[in-house]
Amino acid sequence: MPHAPLAPSSSERWMACPGSHHAEAAAPPSMPSVFADLGTHAHELFARGLRLGLAAEVLTTDPMIQHPLASALAATREILGPRSFLVEVRLPALAGLAAVWGTADVAAFSAQGPVDTILDLKFGEAVRVEPDVPQLGIYTLLAARCYGVAPNGVTAWIIQPRHTHENGPVRSHRYSLADLDKLEAELRDAAAATFVTDAPRHAGPWCRWCRAAATCAVRQAAPDAIPPKPMSAWFQPEPRWL
Q1: What's the whole-model pTM score?
Q2: pLDDT score recorded for residue 124
Q3: Nearest Cα to 36, choosing from 109, 123, 127?
Q4: Beta strand 154-159 pairing with 115-121
């Protein structure tokens, strides 16, 4: 699947470190990862389950996937209820910002028509993801500009069934209309900064997945920039999320 030049999935990095955009373009491609393959497979099953109304037990017999997938599907269906929704929905770029577009796992719509929910599945175990991350904020903004936004804003949901989090596997963050306007201004400024010659680099947790990290002097000068991964015990089910 093609990715945007400034992909929402890597937005934490390029928004915080604008120089990483050109640095990554000159770096070798990422090596295949069993973790990435697992996540891709889980997302495919998740999307199929939602589209066809299938249970996890029908989708896979792999115990490493079936149990957390069942949790993710149950939570998603509870969030969505009877509302209309789209799965794996391609969200177009904003006017004048062609480099930023993406594909949301799920977008759901209010009874009046505008989008009111964006949902993202994270199948990783070790690194927690919060619902106010830039990636999900960008999906929310793109969906709001494409489909219109409900009067009370849009709620972004993270479902992370394999990570132990003090708030449970399902977490949400609401974006008001004013929040979305502010995010758009920040996004346009951040995107413009990545195309500046000799754009600055800044070390931080986002270096973990940067392809240029091994040769980046700023990263090498900050050995403690990437914090240790939170402790995680694989999959502890919870009965309800809402």
Answers
A1: 0.91
A2: 86
A3: 123
A4: parallel
